[in-house]
TrEMBL record:
Protein role: DEAD-box RNA helicase involved in various cellular processes at low temperature, including ribosome biogenesis, mRNA degradation and translation initiation.
Pfam families in the cross-refs: DbpA (PF03880), DEAD (PF00270), DeaD_dimer (PF25399), Helicase_C (PF00271)
Gene designation: dbpA
Annotated Basic residues bias: 565-583
Name this polypeptide is given: ATP-dependent RNA helicase DeaD
GO cellular component, one term: ribosome
Amino acid sequence: MTEEVLTTFAELSLCPEINRVIEEIGYETPSPIQARSIPPLLEGRDLLGQAQTGTGKTAAFALPLLSRLDLSLRSPQVLVLTPTRELALQVAEAVQTYARHLQGFHVLPVYGGQNMGQQLRQLQRGAHVVVGTPGRIQDHLRRGTLKLDRLSCVVVDEADEMLKMGFIDDVEQILEHAPEQRQTALFSATMPNEVLKVARRHLREPVEVRIKAKTSTVETISQRFWQVRGVRKLDALTRILEAEDIDAMIVFVRTKIATVELAEKLEARGFSSAALNGDMTQALREKTVERLKSGSLDIVVATDVAARGLDVQRISHVVNYDIPYDTESYVHRIGRTGRAGREGSAILFVAPRERRMLAAIEQATRQKIAPMKLPSRQDITNRRVALFKEQILDAMQSQDLEFFEDLIDGIQQEFDTEPRTVAAALTYLLQKDRPLLPDEEAFEEVLPASGGRFDGGGRSHADEGLQRYRIEVGRVHGVVPGHIVGAIANEAKISSRDIGQIKIYHDFSLVDLPADLSPAVMRHLQKVWVCGQQLQLVPDLGPGPRQERPPRRRSGGRSFDKRGGKPGRKKFSGGKRPPKKTR
């Protein structure tokens, strides 16, 4: 009997709070490692998983284990061991995001180099999930500051890397400290004998999941990446559309709503674009694809699922506007170009914190992805001028221009001017709605710290009429801009239109608000709760010494001290305090 293939997260029996996050994030279907790992982990089975980095392993173990937590118990119930501090932070942030709707949930990353006193305080407050490196976990076990007596599951992530770095003995010692009646999951990209020996000693009748890495990418596809910095992604995409020789393009984003939003923004900038996602009717999807094939549509903004099986030979470019969650998705995405032996181009937008996924993609595809520079102002100008010349040449060769030639002669004689001056004036009139020479301001690089303007000392400033404020809620707490806007707009009675830039960092955020906020409103916003954190709003003083703030309260969330006329169409939460938690 063949094993049933699960195709949606709804079929995986995760808890409602986790399913809500999956819907918000925009996950559509589980990756192979997720589809095969989540059911046995939900059942409490041990698991031995072999899969490359970048296949979605973190969600494969985090989603089912979070669904099984007892939130009333403040002791560690899940311990995740990682080989590096960077991976520990990455896993902790992912876990925090997946658990954003679990009331009172706490996750704690612990690793060497971090202040021990800070870790001790956070352990005393209680954490449901601890993510850490073996050395620092052992430090806490020796001190007696980390208790594993209520542990229900241990996850060993990247076991082969543990072996390479000399941590495998530490991992075994930690497993020996864990309760005997526990669940254990071990993931590794490769399975050397030493790792298999650890699995045999510490896993009980494990379910074995092996995912073969798909490394086939078409040799005719040129692959490049752009490091996201300064310039907004939409502006970067616009420059690429302007400068490159593009027949048709697919732009991949992560969520269904993003397909519609980005397609509308591109359409507003003069590009023929449309969304393609799973919420569209089959008839509308087929119509969109037919328009792409016929040439009446040049850009499709799609999700992974909606574009599966899409075969349109004229697609010359694929842009990964949002980096995929796993390497398999990347291979599927770029396979939409370079069809039937034609050359294709794949471009990947990579934020600084996503470099690990870039490395995973390169490892899985066994191909180096070259960095690219965005087209410059001169590049855009040259491209616009070349297209303009083509239009003029086409008109000269295909149209009867006698009437217009007589008109030019008349203008020249009446105003006693040169034909060159008349032609220049007509050119200006023709291109003024979309200038051949782009606005210089559109090509100014924004410094990547906090946005806004900078003075000579490197301090950031909000735009005129706005003041930059710091609030004590960040990515680690699961916050997104909508949470901040909703809370401030509701609690301070400020229109969302009057809220400026929002920059979200690891454990704090910067937000631009009207400069004339009253002291009473400021005091009120200091006490407003977002994602389990009090905002503690204060004016931001820039990257210098940290300004004085009201004493930090022990809130329901975690806190860290880390500082962290066109010449033709261009082708183509409320801020309410959460309920009190009981111990």
